[in-house]
């Protein structure tokens, strides 16, 4: 149970769901906070502007009635008290000597008020509102004099309560919390639905791949919900096609191996049974049959030896015993071993070297490759034919070309000649001998050296194999 939960929390479905939920929830919280902060700021600005306009009107009345020098005007006192009550605040009038002329709270009258904001106001500097606890405070100058020579005769210091703003803000906050909760629930439901929809193609892929794991290679992956899944499907189908080809090759290889190993055994069984049925067979017949049995054993041994060599070549972990080698001398030694076979078949064997070449190779494994190429060129040649081996190099690779005047390879067979046990002419191959693994071993050895091999052939004219090997072996 805990293991299942752990898998779910590590799943892409869960991660997408969490990301979508957090995106929706945090967006809602952010928008709510932006709204509340914006409302508070605009409400404060609106309140300060309203208070400032009212105070400017009062300032004009105070200046006209010379209230700062004669603060006994009942009408103005009522107006001051009315404005202070309207904003649930306090109004203080300060003359040019910083004396408090009027205080709607009647607490600071006949005292001195020297504060930074008041001083700035007397100097004519613009003064905005500033919050002080639950109040907004601001200063408004009282202008006196003619239109051309106005001066600041006093300052109105006013504070207005912000309780109504914060009461509305509290209501808005409660409403926003409700809306955020609703949006969070909707985001959670939406994220669950959307995450399931997004990972549905992956679930289909997983189900299909699970069928493959059980051994079924039938059908193709066909999930085209979006461009990405379509691309994955196409790539997977290419890989699946190659996997089917590998499986077919494996089955064919097993069948070929079984056939190649069973054929000599069958021959030996027939020969042995024939001898047993002839209890008084002459010694010469025994010798002849035993020679045939020995030949079949040699053939069986040859097949097994080539199979083991091929298996070793195919292992990815197999390391090459690389050493710096004189390629000219290396090829000369290979041709020296094969010259008796060529002379017996009356084949001219020629080596042409365009330059002296030294490279990093595994001489044992690469010797198998070149020996197979040259030996095939001799065996599948014509009487009085020729085999030419040429060596060349550039700054990065060396090239070995093996050409012959033999029977050639049909074009339809060229793509298959490196497959195991493949023979172009099975009847002729039986006469000549061989296991059908030589070219497969050759290709494996060349590929192990990070090289490449190509073939060009024309029926009844001859065949040319071109091998390219790096001068330096790079792991």
From TrEMBL:
Question: What protein name applies here?
Answer: histidine kinase
The EC number(s) this enzyme carries: 2.7.13.3
Enzymatic reactions: ATP + protein L-histidine = ADP + protein N-phospho-L-histidine
PANTHER family assigned: PHOSPHATE REGULON SENSOR PROTEIN PHOR
Annotated SMART domains: HAMP, HATPase_c, HisKA
**What is the species listed in this Swiss-Prot or TrEMBL entry?**
Hominiventricola filiformis
Query: Where would you find the membrane-spanning parts of this chain?
Result: 178-199
Q: What is one process in the GO biological process aspect for this record?
A: cellular response to phosphate starvation
- Domain of life according to the entry: Bacteria
Report the Gene3D superfamilies cross-referenced here: 1.10.287.130, 6.10.340.10, Histidine kinase-like ATPase, C-terminal domain
A GO cellular component annotation here is: plasma membrane
What is the predominant subcellular site recorded for this chain? membrane
Reply yes or no: does the keyword Iron apply.
no
Q: Which CDD domains match?
A: HAMP, HATPase, HisKA
The UniProt keywords, alphabetically, are: Kinase, Membrane, Phosphoprotein, Transferase, Transmembrane, Transmembrane helix, Two-component regulatory system
Q: Which GO terms describe its molecular function?
A: phosphoprotein phosphatase activity; phosphorelay sensor kinase activity
What InterPro entries is this protein classified in? BphY/WalK/GraS-like, HAMP_dom, HATPase_C_sf, HATPase_dom, His_kinase_dom, HisK_dim/P_dom, HisK_dim/P_sf, Sig_transdc_His_kin-like_C
Write out the annotated subcellular location: Membrane
Q: Where is the Histidine kinase domain?
A: 256-473
The HAMP domain covers 196-248
């Amino acid at each position: 149970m805990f293991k299942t939960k752990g898998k779910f929390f590590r799943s892409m479905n869960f991660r997408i769901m969490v990301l979508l939920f957090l995106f929706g929830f945090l967006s809602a919280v952010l928008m709510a906070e932006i709204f509340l902060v914006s409302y508070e700021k605009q409400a404060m600005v609106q309140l300060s502007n309203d208070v400032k306009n009212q105070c400017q009107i009062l300032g004009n009345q105070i200046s006209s009635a010379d209230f700062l020098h004669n603060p006994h005007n009942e009408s103005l006192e009522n107006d001051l008290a009315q404005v202070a009550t309207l904003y649930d605040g306090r109004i203080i009038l300060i003359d040019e000597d910083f004396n408090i002329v009027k205080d709607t709270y009647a607490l600071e009258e006949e005292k001195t008020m020297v504060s930074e904001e008041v001083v700035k106001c007397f100097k004519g500097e613009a003064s905005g509102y500033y919050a002080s606890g639950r109040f907004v405070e601001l200063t408004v100058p009282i202008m006196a004099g003619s239109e051309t020579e106005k001066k600041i005769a006093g300052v109105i210091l006013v504070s207005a309560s912000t309780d109504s703003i914060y009461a509305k803000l509290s209501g808005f906050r409660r409403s926003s919390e409700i809306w955020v909760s609703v949006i969070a629930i909707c985001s959670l439901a939406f994220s669950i639905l959307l995450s399931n929809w997004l990972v549905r193609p992956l679930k289909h892929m997983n189900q299909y791949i699970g069928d493959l794991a059980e051994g079924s290679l039938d059908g193709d992956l066909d999930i085209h919900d979006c461009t990405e899944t379509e691309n994955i499907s196409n790539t997977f189908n290419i890989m699946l096609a190659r996997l089917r080809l590998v499986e077919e090759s494996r089955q064919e290889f097993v069948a070929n191996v079984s056939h190649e190993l069973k054929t000599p055994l069958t021959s030996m069984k027939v020969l042995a049974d024939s001898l047993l049925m002839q209890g008084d067979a002459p010694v010469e017949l025994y010798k002849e049959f035993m020679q045939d049995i020995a030949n079949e054993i040699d053939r069986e041994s040859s097949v097994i030896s080539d199979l083991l060599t091929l298996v070793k070549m195919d292992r990815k972990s197999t390391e090459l015993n690389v050493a710096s080698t004189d390629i000219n001398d290396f090829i000369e030694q290979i041709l020296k071993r094969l010259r008796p076979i060529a002379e017996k078949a009356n084949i001219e064997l020629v080596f042409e070297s365009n330059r002296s070449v030294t490279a990093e190779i595994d001489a044992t494994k690469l010797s198998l490759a070149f020996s197979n190429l040259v030996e095939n060129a001799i065996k599948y040649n014509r009487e009085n034919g020729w085999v030419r081996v040429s060596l060349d190099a550039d700054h990065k690779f060396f090239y070995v070309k093996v050409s012959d005047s033999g029977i050639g390879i049909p074009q339809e067979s060229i793509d298959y000649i490196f497959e195991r046990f493949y023979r172009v002419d099975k009847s002729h191959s039986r006469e000549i001998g061989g296991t059908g693994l030589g070219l497969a071993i050759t290709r494996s050895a060349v590929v192990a050296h990070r090289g490449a091999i190509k073939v060009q052939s024309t029926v009844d004219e001859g065949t040319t194999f071109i091998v390219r090997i790096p001068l330096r072996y790079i792991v």
